[in-house]
């Protein structure tokens, strides 16, 4: 038969005023590594007119970023089954001056 397993997913969503793809990619990847998230895959797409989307597939779920240069902000969403790593990631991002959050 099958076994029923409960899973917990924790999520944090916020906006940042940074819209520069390279800065976003470098900053968020550095913090993912500092918190010891396991990066399985990274992918990104630059839209023709404007805008950028990237995501990291993590051993503990995913991080996605979508820029909206016309509005001067980017949307960030981190989901994880590891609440301790997620909370530490959010703490580290909150103190970065180049990634001020709204």
TrEMBL record:
SUPFAM superfamilies, alphabetized: S-adenosylmethionine decarboxylase
GO cellular component, one term: cytosol
InterPro entries: AdoMetDC_fam_prok, S-AdoMet_deCO2ase_core
Transmembrane portions of the chain: none
Keywords: Autocatalytic cleavage, Decarboxylase, Lyase, Polyamine biosynthesis, Pyruvate, Schiff base, Spermidine biosynthesis, Zymogen
Swiss-Prot/TrEMBL cofactor(s): pyruvate
A biological process from GO: spermidine biosynthetic process
GO molecular function terms noted in the UniProt entry: adenosylmethionine decarboxylase activity
One Pfam short name: AdoMet_dc
Superkingdom field: Bacteria
Name assigned to this protein: S-adenosylmethionine decarboxylase SpeD
Organism: Psychroflexus torquis (strain ATCC 700755 / CIP 106069 / ACAM 623)
Taxonomic path: Bacteria, Pseudomonadati, Bacteroidota, Flavobacteriia, Flavobacteriales
């Amino acid at each position: 038969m099958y076994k029923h397993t409960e899973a917990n997913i924790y999520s944090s969503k916020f906006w940042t005023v940074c819209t520069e793809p390279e800065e976003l990619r470098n900053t968020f990847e550095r913090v993912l590594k500092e918190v010891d998230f396991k990066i399985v895959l990274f992918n990104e797409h630059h839209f023709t007119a404007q805008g950028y989307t990237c995501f990291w597939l993590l051993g503990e779920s995913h991080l996605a970023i979508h820029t909206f240069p016309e509005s001067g902000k980017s949307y960030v969403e981190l989901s994880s089954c590891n609440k301790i790593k997620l909370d530490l990631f959010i703490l580290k991002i909150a103190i970065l001056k180049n990634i001020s959050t709204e």
